[in-house]
Design goal:
The chain has 382 residues and is mainly beta. It folds into 2 domains: 152 residues, Lipoxygenase-1; 194 residues, Lipoxygenase-1 (Sandwich). 4% of the residues lie in helices and 41% in strands. A 7-stranded mixed sheet has the order 13-15-25-24-21-17-18, with helices on one face. A hairpin with a 5-residue loop joins strand 22 and strand 23. It comes from Deinococcus psychrotolerans. InterPro entries: Stress/Tellurium_Resist, TerD. This is TerD domain-containing protein.
């Protein structure tokens, strides 16, 4: 094994390789970024990590353990990828806290700790094309801001925490309640579920006049159609303010909103099993005051169109009792990789929350890719 120094470069004579990282730092995340010639990523799917162990299109697959990560590479299968960057990051601690951090590939090894100080993220090794040939470079460059700085460096979108509106000294006096009013929106019934069709709405105010529902969950379930390979659908929730400015995204790469009022159950890669494959939990009373709209989305991270998916559904239910309030079926299997499933919006003048079943095509492999289409839908619904 030949040891490399930071900045050293070597030619690679093989195209099928095993790239391995060993460490002793609990909670360390090892990732491999697929980049273009300018070190820019094309989207979230460009990151191979524990929650996305394969690169769409092939060429990279990863296996992740507590103290080791291994990537199997076939450089001949990489399409539109000019660079592969091996990285390590930690949410809380500097990488220097590790006693061991070692990367190995093709008979070369690199230990970057001597080049680091207080950085929480670092680029370790880079495999890159040069004049039609693949080469290896030992990098050893760190980022004090951790994974956020790393993703930003590669041109990715970094989520910003939604700002809380300042607390008012006293709540404004509500306008007087009209003597009578008529609403054509369905009201939640706790005695039976409501089956919504596209465009239909349901108010989250209880029919008996009791306080609004607070703890709600949005479940996503699906089965892969036979003979078409592994299907990986992902549930996501997009938060917007009254002017439709994007605030946050909760999905498999960011499981909690800034104040944990919206939480994701975790990634399901296959759709195996009965019932909800992924669940998003929402505590409406805890949402930031700026959050006026929540758009629930489903995306096909594996790149399969929904025509390859059967028995896909989205449902709204009471978190504690599991009682279903509304059910929306994805029947028909549209030829798209993303869909806006439903929307929760604050009603005007303190009227609580309303859910609208959408079923709108929004081609994208991740929730972040659906942001612009969701904003367009919100503007169109005014």
């Amino acid at each position: 094994m030949t040891s490399l120094q930071a900045g050293e470069k070597q030619p690679l004579t093989q195209t099928r390789l095993e790239l391995r990282v060993q460490h002793d730092l609990p909670g360390l995340d090892v990732s491999l970024f697929a980049l273009d010639g300018e070190r820019q990523m094309s989207g979230d799917e460009s990151i191979v990590f524990y929650n996305n162990p394969t690169l769409p299109g092939g060429g990279v697959s990863g296996q992740f353990g507590e103290r080791e990560a291994t990537f199997l590479l076939d450089l001949t299968k990489l399409q539109g990828v000019e660079r592969l960057m091996l990285t390590a990051s930690h949410d809380e601690w500097p990488l220097k806290r590790a006693g061991v951090l070692r990367a190995e590939v093709a008979g070369f090894s690199f230990e970057p700790l001597s080049a680091l100080q207080n950085e929480k993220a670092a680029m370790l090794l880079e495999l890159y094309r040069h004049r039609g040939e693949w080469k290896l470079a030992a990098v050893g460059q760190g980022f004090a801001g951790g994974l956020a700085d790393l993703i930003g460096y590669f041109g990715g979108e970094v989520e910003e925490a939604a700002e809380e509106a300042p607390t008012q000294a006293a709540p404004p006096v509500p306008p007087p309640t009209p003597a009578s009013s008529v609403s054509l929106v369905k009201v939640v019934s706790l005695s039976k579920p409501i089956s919504l069709k596209k465009g239909e709405q349901v108010s989250l105010r209880k029919e008996d006049g009791a306080p609004d529902l607070d703890f709600l969950s949005m479940g996503l379930g699906w089965d892969a159609a036979g003979g078409r390979g592994s299907i990986d659908l992902d549930a996501g929730c997009l938060l917007f303010d009254e002017q439709f400015k994007h605030l946050e995204t909760v999905f498999f790469m960011r499981l909690n909103s800034s104040n944990k009022s919206v939480r994701h159950s975790g990634d399901n890669l296959t759709g195996a099993g009965e019932g909800d494959d992924e669940v998003i939990f929402v505590e409406l009373s805890k949402l930031p005051e700026r959050a006026a709209h929540l758009v629930f989305v489903v995306n096909s991270f594996s790149g399969h169109n929904f025509s390859a998916v059967k028995r896909a559904f989205c449902r709204l239910f009471v978190t504690e009792t599991k009682q279903e309030l509304a059910h929306f079926d994805l029947s028909g299997g549209e030829a798209t990789t993303g869909m806006l499933m439903s929307r929760l919006s604050r009603s005007a003048a303190g009227g609580g929350w309303q859910m609208t079943a959408l079923g709108i095509s929004a081609p994208a492999m991740t929730a972040r890719g659906s942001i612009k289409r969701a904003q367009q839908e919100l503007r169109d619904s005014r």
